[in-house]
Amino acid sequence: xxxxxxxxxxxxxxxxxxxxxxxxxxxxxxxxxxxxxxxxxxxxxxxxxxxxxxxxxxxxxxxxxxxxxxxxxxxxxxxxxxxxxxxxxxxxxxxxxxxxxxxxxxxxxxxxxxxxxxxxxxxxxxxxxxxxxxxxxxxxxxxxxxxxxxxxxxxxxxxxxxxxxxxxxxxxxxxxxxxxxxxxxxxxxxxxxxxxxxxxxxxxxxxxxxxxxxxxxxxxxxxxxxxxxxxxxxxxxxxxxxxxxxxxxxxxxxxxxxxxxxxxxxxxxxxxxxxxxxxxxxxxxxxxxxxxxxxxxxxxxxxxxxxxxxxxxxxxxxxxxxxxxxxxxxxxxxxxx
Length: 337
Prior knowledge:
By secondary structure, this protein is α+β, with helices and mostly antiparallel strands. The chain has nine helices and seven strands, in the order ααααααβαββαββαββ. It starts with 7 loop residues before the first helix and ends in a 6-residue tail after the last strand. The protein folds into two domains: 8-158, no CATH class; 161-331, Histidine kinase-like ATPase, C-terminal domain (Heat Shock Protein 90), CATH 3.30.565.10. β4 and β5 form a beta hairpin.
């Protein structure tokens, strides 16, 4: 919250409070048999006192709470303001009742301080509390909207990280297949490639995707990789649960498989084997480590995927490396209506 400012709805709250309080005072003054002069002076004095105290409170909150964090100064000036305007209101009441100030009949100075502060606080408590609660709610709402906008922007950036070199390599593979493979093989490869990019374009604005669509997309990708690199990579799917009501961040499985291909190379003609296992609550992607980059930190794809999980839910992606195996666990997301 940059500043404590009053808007149109705040003034409506103040006006509503003054109206209700005025009706209450009229009823109270009538029961206590106040004179017409007291009606005509004390009620406007109450209005002026409340409005001035609200303005002074706004100034003090901005100066000593929001901007400078001088809490002690805030308390001192607030108490002084409560006493000053409470004292002036009480003096006004004495004049309207007696026509003069009977100083010898007033309470002691200490008692007068407490009475004046208490009177001002009573007049100010309800409107200031309502407005402060409203401001806090508005601030929370703005924070949520800002966070939501920030998340949307971050997700759009993170989802745009699919390796641009993949298309280039795929086109080179098509060029090689045209020279050395049957026409049916070339058509099948192009069909899988077009299916992959058709899906990526169709869901580019979605944050999450169904498990079924993620697996279908992944199988397109696996076919392309296995065709491009022949026996260097093997992908095996094992699904023991149905696809229904299971969701992942859009492109999560694709990012995980791309990470396998990017950071592993076969050694001594031994394929890099990847297992994709689906159970009730999560998906596990494990692969043999044949060759890994010197920098063992997470690749860009997995870093982005980890951030996306953080933005979309409170569930965390898990990464484990044991011996010659790398295991990535992707928990399923829940859709909240």
